[in-house]
Design goal:
116 residues, 3 helices
């Protein structure tokens, strides 16, 4: 099909609730602006149990559209993971300095089994 709206509508989704970005405004709106919208229902829902349509007007930010909190969560969680990885590396370096790696527990086990 050549219609991008229909292609977006028919695109498979991994989750049951789907949001389609159908369009966007390229200019800023002044506070208390009035928008006039005309909506044509072209894609039927009668064969989708529990299906419904809704219109959501939202801002488009750095992390994407409507659910910007998820992007912020991912950034914060990534920083925490990097911090824990750095802490783990520091602790590993400190442990190798304070504990001699030549002390092997298997040598103690061999001496005990030889005396029995």
């Amino acid at each position: 099909t050549e219609d991008p709206g229909f292609a977006a509508w028919m695109r498979p989704s991994a989750v049951p609730r789907r949001w389609f970005v159908f369009g966007q405004l390229e200019e800023d709106l002044a506070p208390n602006s009035t928008l006039d919208l005309e909506i044509h229902s072209r894609y039927p829902l009668h064969n989708i149990p529990g299906g419904f349509k809704a219109l959501a007007l939202t801002e488009y930010g750095v992390f994407g559209g409507r659910h910007g909190g998820f992007g912020l969560f991912c950034v914060i969680f990534s920083v925490i993971c990097l911090g824990l990885a750095a802490l783990s590396m520091v602790l590993d370096c400190l442990a190798s300095r304070f504990f001699d790696s030549s002390d092997d527990l298997s040598d103690d086990d061999d001496e005990e089994s030889g005396s029995a």
